[in-house]
Amino acid sequence: MSSIQEEIDKRKTFGIISHPDAGKTTLTEKFLLYGGAIQTAGAVKSNKIKKSATSDFMEIERQRGISVATSVMSFEYDGRIVNLLDTPGHKDFAEDTYRTLTAVDSVIIVVDCVKGVEEQTQKLMEVCRMRNTPVIVFINKLDREGKDPYDLLDEIEEKLKIKVHPLSWPINRGSLFKGVYNIHKKYLNLFRAGSQKVEEESLSIHDLSVKELDIEVGEQDANKLREDIELIEGVYGSLNKQDYLDGTIAPVFFGSAINNFGVKELLESFLELAPTPGSRPTDKGDVFPTDKDFSGFIFKIHANLDPKHRDRIAFLRVCSGKFERNKFFYQVRTKKNTKFSSPFSFLASAKNIVDEAYPGDVIGLYDTGNFKIGDTLTEGKDFNFQGIPSFSPELFKELVNTDPMKTKQLEKGIQQLTDEGVAQLFTHELGNKKIVGVVGDLQFEVIQYRLQHEYKASCMFQPISLHKACWITSDNKAKMDEFCRVKYQYIYKDKDGNIVFLAESAWVLNVARENYPEIEFHTTSEFKTKQKA
Ligand code: G4P
Fold first, then answer.
1. What pLDDT, in 10s, does the model give residues 382-400?
2. Which of 155, 190, 402, 465 falls between 20 and 30 A from 457, CA-CA?
């Protein structure tokens, strides 16, 4: 029997983030190939791989080719357990990605060397920065005529606001791309375009002055590489691992995911450098993975993963101690003790029942509607993990039921979809008017589609002009009551019963704040951060 410490030391839990099309799915699949989680090399987009390996559980995603859902893929590599949390790249599902980033210990950012750092990557990096999440950058598509590698490094520093440290370096790019020199491990990987093999052709060159290098890549490129490496080593020195772990320096790797080039070195260096599960803040202080008692939180809820079952699946990140099957755990929000008879892991694509899980692991719990995103599970203690807030949505529409015979289905459907975090629901106390708030327009379509296909309810969304949703709190009950009376048309409740003011415009919000200084207007549901609108 291994100790909890040994189990923790084995685990790496991370996410891959990128702007859509930079190559996240391709890289993920190559990782899974190395991990033995899938067997089919090559043909990245073949349906076979897509079905078994990726997170594309939802039909809508297949239709649109956009990664809507977040999923988890676990595999073993070199004695380690790697938990890879997939994130939707599309900006309309950004909130889903933000929440997933609360459950990882580090991140790999994929950048397309042709396009450079794109907008969505910048936004996601901000979320990483909020938590000082360590990041490694993989510059992808070196087989294309991309930007100059030095320019890319500058662009990353400027746009992602993080210092970089190249740990590998390319020899040329595009049609002249010849390989990547691994500065970290001091060997050269030679590129054979179109090679779909898992193993790359590598050459150990500890001393770049050897003649072998000239023979392999030609004198001109050999000399250029020698100059580049000398310059890089002079500028960057050796990597200070602690800076990376503190989230202030990002190691950078180059490669071509589709050609399976530079992927193995990325994976191996990542496994060597990336942090094992660390401590996490709660409202009662930090929880450490080595704490004896189990604790964890729900960061995602997904309905109907398997069309044959109506159950929802709650994704639990284990933070401390040991999770055990059939043991009673305490759900802090509801104060209920629950045991789980069939928790499962995400090893490969098969869902395996697990008897135990350790810090860093993500397990799936079948749920009949008891969980909400952000719920904490413990061995009896009353504390809540922090940092899983709802943000004010940016787009609002009124949900209108178009089939009165299916009112119940619609109510249930919208409730469950909002519990999953697909959107936020605000309900007016009088008249039951429902406003749905989302981050991107596409989410309205997803909701409509899912309500129809999963709940057989039909609805439409009526445009409504709103600026922001603000959670309001006050120590002055009389003022709060007065405000709610005066603004009753715009006072709604979120799904947890918190009072929310839906402001029509920035001007209205400003006036409200001026007139009611006793009231606090928050743009996230996590009031403890005291973030003001
Ligand atoms: P994403 O998950 O970040 O959205 O990106 P994804 O992996 O789906 O890759 C986006 C496109 O980029 C795909 O092409 C993929 O084949 C291609 N790609 C990934 N890595 C590389 C690389 O190293 N070099 C080159 N040249 N292309 C790469 P697609 O045309 O959208 O799909 P498909 O027709 O290849 O299936």
1. 999 986 666 678 899 999 9
2. 465
pLDDT tens for each residue of 215-225: 888 999 999 99
Cα distances from 456 to residues 63, 241, 364, in angstroms, run 19, 53, 26
Residue of 17, 18, 19, 21 to test ligand 1 pocket, by largest number of atoms within 8 Å of CB:
21
pTM of the entire predicted model: 0.82
The alpha carbon of 323 is separated from its chain's Cα centroid by a whole number of angstroms, namely 23
Ligand 1 centre distance from Cα of residue 257 (Å): 8
Instruction: Give residue-wise pLDDT tens across range 404-436.
Output: 898 999 998 898 888 777 789 999 987 689 999
In DSSP terms, 372 is beta-bridged to: none
Phi-psi region of 428 (alpha: psi -120 to 50; beta: other; left: phi over 0): beta
Measured by CA distance, the residue closest to atom 9 of ligand 1 is: 23
Distance CA 434, CA 410 (A): 11
Query: Which domains, from first to last, does the chain contain?
Result: 14-73+88-273 (3.40.50.300), 280-378 (3.40.50.300), 395-532 (3.30.70.3280)
Q: How far is the CA of 20 from the centre of ligand 1 (A)?
A: 9
Select from 195, 258, 266 the residue to mutate for testing ligand 1; criterion: most ligand atoms less than 8 Å from CB: 258
In this predicted structure, what is the pLDDT of residue 66? 36
Q: What local confidence, expressed as pLDDT, does residue 308 receive?
A: 57
Q: Output the CA 108–ligand 1 centroid distance in Å.
A: 17
Q: How far is the CA of 114 from the centre of ligand 1 (A)?
A: 12
Count CB atoms within 10 A of the CB of residue 408.
10
Q: Give tens-digit pLDDT for 438-495.
A: 877 878 888 888 888 888 899 999 999 999 999 999 999 999 999 999 999 999 998 8
**Pick from 155, 233, 221, 151: nearest CA to 188:** 221
For ligand 1, what atom is nearest to the CA of residue 261? 23
Closest CA to 267 of 182, 347, 161: 182
